[in-house]
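Hey team,

Filing this mostly as a record. A colleague (T.K.) asked me to run one chain through the structure pipeline before their review meeting, and I want the input and output archived in the tracker in case anyone asks later how it was produced. No errors, nothing strange. Just documentation.

Input sequence:
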Amino acid sequence: MRVPLSVQRGFAAIAAIFLVVILAALGGFMLTFSNTQQLTSAQDLQGSRAYWAARAGLGWGVAKVIADATACTSSTPANMGGAPANVEGFSITVTCFASSYVDAGSTINILRIEARASSGTAASANYVERSVSSYLEK
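Output structure:
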């Protein structure tokens, strides 16, 4: 038994439309995935740059404390003036906290220096911040 031709018409058009829709959806997914991957890579690079900017601030803070005995004497975290405020687009703040205790009759001074580097606007997709700290005995 033979199927009339009028019954078979239009099936290829439906299959072609289905394939075009699937390929368009796949292309859209690939575009979104590629864009997300690019943004993640850029954010990772900015995070690394922020870390090294914070390390530069920490190095400056340690050198200042070693050169000047009065640079860090506060028992509350205090901003160390004169720190490099802006390095390669990163805002850097260096704080110092001094504490002391007596051990075997001698006073031991412990200094905690923290450097924080940030770039961008807080609570936005382009914001990045890193902080590093170090302890010194003086």
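Quick notes for T.K.: The chain is about 45% helix and 30% strand. The chain has a mean pLDDT of 83.
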